[in-house]
Amino acid sequence: MSVAVVVGLQWGDEGKGKVVDILSRHADAVVRFQGGANAGHTVVVGGEKYVLHLIPSGVLNGRSVCIIGSGVVIDPKELVEEIRFLQEKGFLKDDSRLKIDLRAHLVFPYHKEIDRLREEKRSEKIGTTLRGIGPAYEDKVGRCGIRFADILDKDILKSRLSQVLPEKNEYITKVLGGRPVDFYRILDEYTAYGEMLSRYAIDTNTLIDGMIRDERHVLFEGAQGSGLDIDFGTYPFVTSSSTISAAATGRIWGSNIEVLGVTKAYTTRVGHGPLPTEEKGRFGDEIRAKGGEFGATTGRARRCGWLDLVMLKYYSKINGVTSLAITKLDVLSGINPIKVCVGYRLGGRELDYLPATSNEAFEVEPVYREMEGWDKIEGVRDVSYLPIEAKRYLDMISSYLDLPIALVSTGYDRSDVIVLKNIFNLK
Ligand code: IMP
C-alpha cells in the first residue's frame, strides 16, 4: 500500500499531529489537503513541543517532502513565520523539502477582519479561530478568491485585488461597521510574500500523482475532524472545509488506501456546538488538566467528555476508515469507573446515529456503559504491558466499531506509542 490518509473522527485535536509524525518517518511525502492556519498540530520531540499550523507535521522527521496542497487556504504571513521558526530550530534547511500548490487560495487581512466582526455580531457564536477561514473559503467557492499563483506576479495581484477589494471594503465598513483595508499595504505585503515563497511553488498534484504511480509512500494529513466537516459535521458549528478522507482521496485512483481514523480515548471540543457526552464537573476539569486540553491555536480551554462510540461509528463509515489510532489513553489512568457512550436517547426514542441537525444533537442524552479503570500506563510501548482493564477498553472500542487498532498513544513523546499494524513498514 502506498497511500495512507490520517483523519480525525471527533471535533479536531485528536492527536493527528503525533500520528502523522510517527508514520511520516516511513513516508516519502506528507500532504496537507484542506483547512488552514486554524489547525494546530502538536508534536513533542525530545521533550520540546512544536505546534504546526500550515506545514505538514512530517517536517519534523527531516526526510519526507512536505506538501501544502491545492485545497488548503494559506495565510502567507503565518506560513513565512512558521518556515522561519522551523529553520531556526534546524528543520527545513533544504528548500526542496517544501512544496506549495499554485492553486491554493490565500487568506487576506480582510478575511480575518470579516471573520472577527461577524463572530462579534453573532448572537449564536460558532467560536471560530478568527483565522479568516470561513470568509476565505467563501471567496474560493464564490470565484472571487486570490490564489498563491496570483501573488507571484505583482501585476496580476494588482488586477485581482482591484476587482475584489472595493467590494470587501464596502461590506466591512457599511454592513459590519469595521475599518477598510488599505489596497497598497496589501499589495506590497503580499508581493513580498510572493517573492519569499516563490521557490516552493509548483503544481503539487502532478508531483503527488507521479509518486503514487511509482508506489512511493504518500501520507495525507487531515486537519480538524469529521465533526467539524462542512457537510457531515454538526452544522453550523463546523469549519468551512471538507475534513473527511474523500477530500484527499477524491483524486486517487486504483490505489490500495489505508484510512487511519484518529480518536482520543475520551472526547474534546473547542468552540461552540453540540457535545453530547460533555462533563462540566470534576471529570471534565481533571481531564483538561491532565491532558493539557487547551487549544493549540487559540489557547482556549477545550470542553471535555467521555468517549462517544455513536459518533465514532458514524464518522468511521463516512471516512471509509480501515484502522484506528487511539491517542491519550494514559490520560484516563486513575479514573474509575470509565463511561463510554453506546447510544443516544431523544424524546423517548433510542438512536444509534448522530442526528442531522444541531438542534437535535444538543438535545440527545447519552446512554452509557461503565468500564473498570486502570492505574498507570504512561509510556507503555508494548501491548502486553497494558493492564487488563486498559486492554478491555481498547477491545471494546475495536469490536463496537468493527475496526482493528493500528496505534495507541500512551504519552506525550513521539516514542510513547504501541504499534499494532504495519502501515508503511512501521513495525
Ligand atoms: P474556523 O475553522 O476558524 O472557522 O472555526 C470553526 C470551528 O472549528 C470552531 O468551533 C473552531 O473552534 C473549530 N476548529 C477549527 N480548527 C480547529 C482545529 O484545528 N481543532 C479544533 N477545532 C478547530
Helix content: 25-40%
Instruction: Name the CATH homologous superfamily of the largest domain.
Output: Adenylosuccinate Synthetase, subunit A, domain 3
CATH architecture of the largest domain: Alpha-Beta Complex
Structure summary, number of beta strands:
20
Number of domains: 2
Biggest sheet strand order reads 9-7-5-2-10-1-11-15-19-20
- Ligand inventory: inosinic acid
Derived structural class:
alpha/beta
Tally of helical segments: 12
Shape from CA axes?
globular
Calculate the mean pLDDT score and round it: 94
Overall radius of gyration:
22 Å
How would a textbook summarize the main sheet? 10 strands, mixed
CATH level-3 fold name of the largest domain: Adenylosuccinate Synthetase, Chain A, domain 3
Q: How far is it from the N-terminal to the C-terminal residue, by CA? A: 15 Å
Strand content: 15-25%
| CATH class assignment of the largest domain | Alpha Beta
Secondary-structure topology with pairs:
Layout: E1 3-8, H1 16-24, E2 29-32, E3 41-45, E4 48-52, E5 65-68, E6 73-74, H2 76-88, E7 98-101, E8 105-106, H3 109-121, H4 133-141, H5 154-175, H6 183-197, E9 201-202, H7 204-213, E10 218-221, H8 246-249, E11 257-264, E12 267-269, H9 282-291, E13 303-305, E14 307-308, H10 309-319, E15 323-327, E16 338-346, E17 349-351, H11 358-363, E18 365-371, H12 388-401, E19 405-409, E20 417-419
Parallel strand pairs: 1-10, 1-11, 2-5, 2-10, 5-7, 6-8, 7-9, 11-15, 14-16, 15-19
Antiparallel strand pairs: 3-4, 12-13, 16-17, 16-18, 19-20
Helix pairs in contact: 3-4, 3-5, 5-6
This protein binds inosinic acid (IMP).
